[in-house]
Every structure is written in C-alpha cells, then in structure tokens.
Amino acid sequence: MGFFVTDIGLAMMGSLVTVSPKKTLFMIPPVLAVFIGSRRNTIPDRNSGSNERLGTSKSTLASLLFCSLMPLIFPSCGGDSDKKEVASKGESIEASNQLIQLRFRTAQDKDRFAASSSSSSVTEVNHEGPQESEGVANEIAKLQPGADWETESLSAAAAERIRQLIDGSSNTVGFVCCDLRPDDLQSQEHRGGFIVSKWEAGDLPEMKGAEALADLRAVFAKDEMKSHVKVVSIVKEEVGFVTEILIELRGFSAEGKKPRQVTAEWRGRWNDSDPPQLLSLDLLSYEESAGSVHFVDATRSVLGETPHFESQVMTGTSFWASRITRFGDFSLTGHQGLAVGDVNGDGMEDLFVCDGGSLPNRLYAQQADGTVHDVSGEAGIDWLEDSRSALLIDFDNDGDQDLVVATIGVIAFAENDGTGKFTLRGGHPGAQYPFSLSAADFDSDGDLDIHACVYSAGDTASARGFEATSPAPFNDAENGGRNLLLMNLGEFKFVDVTKQVGLDEDNSRWSFSAAWEDFDRDGDPDLYVANDFGRNCFYRNDDGKFIQISAELGVEDMASGMSVAWGDSNCDGAADLYVGNMFSSAGRRISYQGNFGESSEVEGLQRMARGNSLFAADGEGGFRDVSESSGAAMGRWAWSSGFIDVNNDGWEDIAVANGNLTGKGPDDL
Questions:
Q1: 539-594 residue pLDDT tens
Q2: 246, 159 in Cβ contact below 8 A?
Q3: I need a surface site. Which of 17, 143, 628, 630 has the fewest CB within 10 A?
Q4: Which of 245, 243, 233, 242 is CA-nearest to residue 166?
Q5: What global pTM score does this model have?
Q6: If we measure between CA atoms, which residue out of 425, 424, 396, 393 comes closest to residue 491?
Q7: DSSP letter at 622?
Q8: Would you give the DSSP letter of residue 529?
Q9: Which ranges constitute the DSSP H helices of 34-167?
C-alpha cells in the first residue's frame, strides 16, 4: 500500500496506516497531551482580526449535550433499539447500537483559509506582559542546577567545549586523544546504495587532538557538516570528572557530495578548573553511513496548489494559538493525525488530514500527476472538530473506504457512497480525550471493529487537561482514561464491549496507541497498548476474549510509551514488537547519579530515559529485549514509529518520527 508522509505545519505529527492481508489495520498515532475547550468553534476573520462564530448556539449545545446523555438515561434512546446476540468464546453478549446522531460544524460555504486571505492581515495577540515575563524568568530560574547538582553545570560546560572542538572554533592544545575515525572499519553495502561502516572496539593509536579532529572533519565537505552533542553520563572522581558523550555528525561527503552521517560515543576526562579543561578523549563506538538521497520533502510540490496551503498547512500551532480561543477546542500541543486510503475508487491513495478545533479537516484526492485536490467540502467531511486520529477502512464490506475520526467529544463514523462522498452515521460518546484508533476483526465475524486509546480521564467542572487530572505516580500511573473496544454490529452500528471481552483489566494507564497482531498464530488478532506513564499492556485474544499477559511475557516496557509497531525485524517469520518511547540524555545523566536516590523506583525512572524498545520473538511464545544490542533504542524523543522496507532488500527497517514543540523563542522546547 502506498502512502504519503508529510509535515502539515507544526499543528500535526504524522501517522502511518497499513493494512495487513488479514484485514487487520494498524495505526501509529499522533501523540502528546491535549487541553480542550468547550464545544463552540470559532474561525478568525483574517481581514478584521475578529473571531466570527461558525458554530452552534447555546441552545443547540444544550441539545447536543442532552442527546449525548440520552443513551445513558434512557437506554432505548440515541441508538437502535434492536438488540443482537453476539457469540464470543461460547458465550453470548447482548449488544445494541450505542451510536448517537451527530451534526458537526463544517467550513461549508466559504473557505476562510483560501489563499486570498493574507495571514498578515490578522492582528496578532501579544501575550507578553511584565507579569508574564517575570513569571517566565522565575520558572527558568528554577531549572538552573543548584549546589547539589554541580554535575549539570559541568555537563553543560563539557558539551560546549566538545562542540567547539568539533567545529574548529576552539584550540585543541592540552589533551591526549586517540584516532576518532578508525582505519579498520568493517563496511557492508546494502541495496539502494547504502554503505554502513562500523568499528569493532579495540586499541587505537594515540594522536594529537588537532590531527584526530581534522581527520574526522575530512569525512565531510567543507562547511557541509552539522553536529549534535549530548552528554549522557557524568561521574565525579577524586580529581576532576568523566563524561560519556554521544556525537552525531551529518552532512555531505567531500567526494560526490553524497549524504553521510557519523554516530559515535566518546569518553572525556576533565580537570576541576573553571571552566573545566579536557585532559583526554577516547573513542567508545563509531558508525558511519553513506548513500544517495532517497527521500525529498515533497510537501509543497504535492499540496502547494491547494488554496489554503500557505494559510492553513504552512501555519503552525503558535500562529493559531494567538487567534483561536480555548473555546474553539484548539490544542496548544498540536498533534493531529492522518489516514490514507482510496476514497473514490480510482486506484490512487488519497489523504485525510485531521486538524485542531476550529480548523477544518481536509480530504486530499490524489491526481494522476501526484498532486492533490482539496475535496473536503464536497465530500462532506470538512469538520471543525478537534480531531486526533482517523482511519479509512471498509466498515460495511461494500468495497469502499469509510471513515472513522476520533474527535475531542466523540468517535465519529461516516459512510462512503463509493465516489468519495460521505454521510455522517453517528458517533460514540464514550471516549473523551481519545488519542488514537486501531481496527481489527477481533471476533472473526467478518466486520472490522474499532479500538480507541483514551488518554486522560477527562475534565472537571473547573479544570481541563493536566489541570484536571495528572498521572500519578509519574512512572506507573493508573488514573488515566478508559480505552474502548467498539464491536461492529453491521450497518454502522457499534457497541462498547470492552468490559465483556476482558479489556477493562489495567485499562486506565494513559494510553497513547495500540496495534493488533496475531503473535501466537492461532488465527485471531492480539492487542498491544502503549501507555505514556508506566507499564504497557499486551492482551492475548482467545476466541474473542482477552487476557492481559504483558508481565508474563516481559513486555510491560515500563517507560513513556508513544507508539507500537509489529514487524519481522530478523526475517525469522515471527512477529517482533517495536515500542516508541523517549530517549533523554538529561534523564540518563541524572538518574544514575548517587544523589538521585537508590530504589526500585529509581531503576524504573532510569528505564524511562533509555529510549525505544525492540522485543524479538524467541520462538517459544515469548520475547527477548534486543533494544540495545540491535541498535534500535536510540530514537530520540520518539512519537510515531513503524516497520518499513526502505530499500526493498527484504529486511524491514524502522522509521521513527521524533522531536518536540518548537516556538518562536530560541529557548523554546
């Protein structure tokens, strides 16, 4: 299945959707905590700077709220009164439709984001004031290390010194060095022109620092190298201190201007002077990769002709945060997802893009030349709801791709008529703060069912987001939202069967994403759920009933779970599991120091900073943690992740979307 990968401004983190031959669908979701507003949507008038409501009145809002509560108060209202007996593992589940009728606000008649509206015509709100600036300064001051954490100041000084040495802006006199680019590299060429060269640790000749650094810089063309330096360990000694430093160099080769990357780990010894001086530098690991350009940013060439490209696609969260109030359900963390599917039956994959509250979702129909047309309005799905995740799949087995979208208030279902026109068939109100969707036929009845990861437990009367509910304890939280399994009853009728099938066990762990795979090869899909603040869950499917087995199989992976992907990393025919977490150099540095503490809880926090996890099937029904030995742990601050054979050599590679929020200020995350 082909797919688009594109960055829709800063308001989105991408998702990857694939469908297996067994009709099981996996989705790597967008991720991050979200703060919501009320159900009123506003769109700014880009000419006047004012907010004009394109939404419902208060009475309509009240009606919607009442409709949402009707199925709870009167079980026969809001859904189909006909009940269906559903067999599961020799038992029957009495199930009736729980979807409620919906009417979403849409952009409709006038697209407020057309190119004719200049973003410069909108008056930007200035949030900075004396009190706020002072408050920010106070918060920044709290982040400065105190006397108990002198090592953090030393780490910062060491990192800056290494950066200067690498780029040649500092002299190299006064320290002992070894060869930083060994001669005896073992190279292997891969299909597509990739060449990976590794060094097997051993003795290296002593060199002058200037010579060693010059040899390393010579890998790249002049002025074509960019460096990243992270101190991951610091240990105070009787005299001075020792650091372990991750080095990443990227650029183009001196010969042929081909992309090249160097990843290395150095050990530095330092004295106690102020600033500390480097005494010696040793090489711990070295890897070099080179090849031809295989990916280029095609965002503008594919989407650039849509009328709202500059005004909506290329504007980020910081732009809209000063223009849309919190009542418009706009999320400051901006992590809406996307889905791919052929909505109009022309044989080409189309793209559905979720967006924040008060910004219309978009459906892009692919053209023969690879560009797209925006058909959101004519398709009837240019909704203004804050949308987090979406799937394009066939719910009614009529051969076309229907749509399900996780919005801030409901999980909405829309039926495709086969030509790319959609009719909203209703929504399930049981998932506030949904973060991702995944689909599979868990009960083997021939219909795709939906699993929704629900992040937090929801708002209170006086607070929203993390203000209302925060994970506790941070590394093993059990106070999150309740995930849902919606059984497909046919004819766009769905019912929550989470409790009946056993998925309510350990079901409040701040879930980010889930993926289905028949790991035990018994003919039904099993479910792995990645949770943000602690233990993950793995539910084995036994004929439609689930048993939580993550602890038993050693795959709880107590970390900051963001994404899940199944694949065969070693070509042994068995399903391996990859979980996207967070790599934190600061976390690794701090959590291993004595004054951080010593306890089993500390060990858990150390694990949270390690990075991503790869669990390889062991051939006996279990898994082995091969994260570090395989080199798959370092995915930076990871969000989405997935297996993909990048160079068509038959071996599945891993792609990881990573990073964090970026604002206008240079010190923003």
A1: 999 999 999 999 999 999 988 899 999 999 999 999 999 999 988 888 888 888 87
A2: no
A3: 143
A4: 245
A5: 0.80
A6: 396
A7: S
A8: E
A9: 58-73, 130-142, 150-167
